Amino acid sequence: MAEYIEPLQRLAEQFGRLEGIGRKTALRLAFSVLEMSGEEAADFAQAVIDAKTKIHLCPVCQNLTDAEKCSVCADEGRDRSVICVVEDPRAVMSIEKVREFKGLYHVLHGAISPMNGITPEKLKIKELLARCEDPQVSEIIVATNPNVEGEATAMYLSRLLKPLGIKVTRLAYGVPVGADLEYADEVTLFRALEGRRDV
Amino acid sequence: MAEYIEPLQRLAEQFGRLEGIGRKTALRLAFSVLEMSGEEAADFAQAVIDAKTKIHLCPVCQNLTDAEKCSVCADEGRDRSVICVVEDPRAVMSIEKVREFKGLYHVLHGAISPMNGITPEKLKIKELLARCEDPQVSEIIVATNPNVEGEATAMYLSRLLKPLGIKVTRLAYGVPVGADLEYADEVTLFRALEGRRDV
């Protein structure tokens, strides 16, 4: 008996396939399931199935949705002239929480990373270009992550969209609000200085 | 759109019910499921169901098993005169990994903790007493966790079993005080088994 019994081992392996879950955590989670009632475990399993079968991509912005269109695209009150381009659905939620941006989104589902085999063709860039053919669209805010891949993607989109006469902007770099200057890295501080504004 | 879409939200809530999973981690895990293929998600859901339906307690030692008896109780080569009493199935695995203990186990499924409403009646102590009626049984090694509840349980069992003429021993303090058996390393566990003492 060097291994756990098979159904437990298999459940732990399934948990271990989830992002950021190691071997010990996977086992702890599997034991957690055993402590549930049969009904709770069935609900859990059903939630997994439902998430996979009911959720699909919004045909307009490629965000996740369980309706025909996502709630942002379906909202008639949103400004259709600005599209905020993000890497994943989590970024949409982060920006929505600010309650400041009233335009639409476009989810790329990744960032260009030739090292990892992610070429522009693998992202939802084709779909973004199609949306940009609408003369209503006047600005694209590129809100990809502030790292090498996100930067490369922003550059790529900028070269693609500027010839179409669309304004392409990027989120400002700077020191995070509430943080301590002491802990800001040099590149961030440099960008913050570079982008300084009149008070 | 202040909330995530319903099926995703519901899946995240399900993950959030698992031990040690907070809100942010639960969401990350839910997104992980969305990145699986439909088949993988179905396998995951099935593993949850199977773990719950196929696993039950061994009628002898109360450890988890998917067979009639657990593999230790079913093993004719084990020494039936020594029973190692542990709090949970994870502790059985930890001790089995040492490959030193050749006796049987008994899983209490908890430790006495009046503060949390866990009285001796709620543990598998009745079942342990029934096993101790077998004259073959000569020693009970109490390997409950080295904390207050585990200590109290050891004392309780000692008072209960000594009058029956059974030797009751406790793991030596080699196991770090206040820790969990699950996380003890094999050498420490080996020393603890080797140095066990009368309670």
Order of helices and strands of chain A: HHHEEHEHEHEHEH
User: Which CATH architecture of the largest domain in chain A?
Assistant: 3-Layer(aba) Sandwich
**What's the level 1 CATH class of the largest domain in chain A?**
Alpha Beta
**CATH topology-level name of the largest domain in chain A:** Dna Topoisomerase Vi A Subunit, Chain: A, domain 2
The major pleated sheet of chain A works out as: 4 strands, parallel
Rg of chain A, Å, rounded: 22 Å
Beta strand % of chain A: 5-15%
Unreliable stretches of chain A, pLDDT < 50, 5 or more residues? none
Helix content of chain A: 40-55%
- Rounded to the nearest angstrom, the distance between the terminal CA atoms of chain A is 69 Å
Q: How many DSSP-defined strands of chain A?
A: 6
Give an overview in words.
- The structure is a homodimer of 199-residue chains.
- By secondary structure, chain A is α/β, with parallel strands linked by helices.
- Chain A folds into 2 domains: 6-54, Helicase, Ruva Protein, domain 3 (Orthogonal Bundle); 57-198, Dna Topoisomerase Vi A Subunit, Chain: A, domain 2, CATH 3.40.1360.10.
- Chain A has 8 helices and 6 strands.
- In chain A, the strands form 2 sheets. Chain A has a 4-stranded parallel sheet with strand order 4-3-5-6. A two-stranded antiparallel ribbon of chain A has the order 1-2.
- In chain A, helix 1 (6-16) packs across helix 2.
- Chain A is globular and about 65 Å long.
- Chains A and B meet through helix 1, helix 2, helix 3, strand 2 and helix 5 of A and helix 1, helix 2, helix 3, strand 2 and helix 5 of B.
